[in-house]
Amino acid sequence: LPTLTSPVMTSGPVVGEFFLASGGRVFQLVDNGQRIAQEPALPAGAAVVELAAVGGDQATLLARTANNVLYLLKGSAWSVLTGVTGGPIGAGANGVLLVGNGGGKLGSAGTVAYSADLGTTWRQGQGLPNDQSVEAIAGQPDSTTFFAYCYGGDIYQSTNGGSAWVLLSKAMRFKTG
Predict the structure, then answer these.
(1) DSSP 3-state assignment of 93?
(2) What is the DSSP string of 99-155?
(3) DSSP structural state of residue 95
(4) Which among 50, 129, 125 has a CA at the least distance from the CA of 86?
(5) 114 pairs with which residues across the strands?
(6) Is the separation of the CB atoms in 128 and 136 below 8 Å?
(7) Residues 153, 161: contact at Cβ < 8 Å?
(8) Residue 32 has pLDDT above 90, yes or no
(9) Which residues of 77-100 are buried (b: 16+ CB within 10 A; e: fewer)?
(10) How far is CA 54 from CA 65, 88, 90, in A?
(11) Phi, psi of 94 (to 5 degrees)
(12) What is the pLDDT of residue 141?
């Protein structure tokens, strides 16, 4: 591997597979890093700040860049996703993609846009808090269950690919006062 600058990493859809991004370069690590393959580079000047592996028959990668542009790796080329703005990302089985609103705001409604067709169409998830932006999304590439961390400390869960969300925990709530 080259010298890494601000690396980000995500697990792949296969046990022992990971993807590592540094700047605009992305690497696939197989067998827990015993083998390394370089994926196509993002367009010049694009630096990856968040990476998610998409599972299913069309295993691919979703990347968010420093300027909040979303890229999807299809075959051997990255394409820009339109119809949704950049924020925290997640991906799962069967081409499910998620993008939260982020922004670190109390008093701002939490939103997650989700796509079940690799970003061709986007819909808004329902059930997130009306007073906390969504700051992080996590899931597994082989699942449609996701978790969203909201700015006020609440954690929400979706078991249907981002369509419906329910409060899972208030254990990380900020203490005010």
Answers:
(1) helix
(2) EE--S--BTS---EEEESSTTSS-EE-B---SSB-EEEEEE-TT-S-EEEEETTS-E
(3) G
(4) 50
(5) 98, 123
(6) no
(7) no
(8) no
(9) ebeebeebebbbbbbbbbbbbbbb
(10) 17, 15, 8
(11) 60, 35
(12) 74
Write down the number of H helices and E strands in the chain: 0, 16
Task: Indicate whether this model's pTM tops 0.85.
Answer: yes
Spatial separation of the C-alpha atoms in residues 125 and 111, rounded to whole Å: 7
Instruction: In whole angstroms, give the CA distance from residue 140 to residue 135.
Output: 17
Structure tokens at 97: 């993609």
In 3D, which of 100, 165, 158, 163 has the Cα closest to residue 133? 100
Q: Is 63 left (phi over 0), alpha (psi -120 to 50) or beta?
A: beta
Rounded Cα–Cα distance for residues 13 and 92 (Å): 9
What are the structure tokens assigned to 109, written together?
């409604």
Predicted confidence (pLDDT) at residue 61 exceeds the cutoff of 70: yes
* Percent of the chain's residues with pLDDT above 90: 66
Summarize the confidence of residues 11-38 as an average pLDDT.
Answer: 91
* Cα–Cα distances in angstroms (integers) from residue 26 to residues 62, 99, 101, 147, in the given order: 11, 20, 25, 25
Quote the CA–CA distance of 50 and 5 in Å, as a whole number: 13
C-alpha–C-alpha distance, residues 3 and 19, integer Å = 16
Most confident of 107-111, 142-146, 156-160: 156-160
